[in-house]
Design goal:
single chain, alpha+beta, seven-stranded antiparallel β-sheet, 7 strands, 41% strand
């Protein structure tokens, strides 16, 4: 469970690829070409781009993430997530008429660190504490559906931007949870909760992951739209 990403949209990568001229553009309906181009460009797109004012997405830094559930509340401060550049994009489907984009990502070795505050119940056990934390995920499968829109730039040309998104995130391998100073350092209580969390990693990740993924994705898509505004829509694709 991380914070991901998750994750840049196909159109973002198309724009950055066209700008850098690293790879030949694809025909609009050639999803195999898009998929290959995306995976080649992904490490560069997740890197910092000072010219465009784009901050790094690997590592990805988020100042504050809050979770507010009936039985559990937590805050994560100054989180840093690494590993997005290792993601592999699959099953890309784009419909420009409907302005929608679907893609799936397999992401190994995602890790999030930072400071935490937590109180309430973690499923069946009480939990309370504050301090340093680390969450290491061996594998995540991310399904991302984006709604796009067109905007007219200052140059009177039409650009694509990302309007909204929906995501489904599934941990597909064990997750390691390490929260320091649970129960003010009372080792017996802390060890009991951490053992429970690591033995029930799937259920715990399902419980905690939504605010982490949502905040990470908001950060990533904000950067994505900066890339999108560098390439007019009529220059992003090869005409049939």
């Amino acid at each position: 469970m991380v914070s991901i990403f998750e994750i840049l949209a196909l159109t973002t990568l198309c724009a950055s690829v066209a700008q850098s001229e690293m790879y030949a553009p694809c025909h609009l309906n050639d999803m195999d070409c898009f998929e290959a181009t995306l995976n080649k460009a992904l490490p560069q797109v997740f890197s910092e781009n000072q010219t465009l004012g784009v901050e790094s997405s690997d590592p990805l830094k988020v100042d504050l993430i809050e979770g507010d559930m009936p039985d559990l509340k937590f805050k994560l401060f100054s989180t840093i997530t690494t590993g997005y550049k290792q993601c592999v994009i699959k099953n890309v489907k784009m419909n420009l008429d409907a302005l929608t984009l679907h893609e799936e990502l397999d992401c190994p070795n995602l890790e999030t660190t930072g400071k935490y505050e937590i109180s309430g119940r973690l499923m069946t056990l009480p939990i309370e504490g504050n301090g340093d934390f680390k969450i290491a995920a061996e594998s995540y499968h991310i399904t991302l559906d984006l709604d796009l829109e067109t905007v007219v730039g200052d140059d009177k040309k039409v650009y694509l931007t990302i309007k909204s998104f929906k995501q489904k995130n599934e941990a597909t391998a064990p997750i390691s949870f390490d929260f320091k100073n649970l129960f003010n350092g009372q080792k017996d209580q802390a060890d009991k909760v951490l053992t429970f969390a690591n033995q029930n990693w799937k259920q715990v990740s399902d419980l905690l992951q939504e605010p982490i993924w949502y905040n990470n994705m908001k950060t990533i898509l904000s950067s994505s739209n900066k890339y999108l505004m560098t390439e007019p829509l009529d220059q992003m694709f090869i005409s049939p």
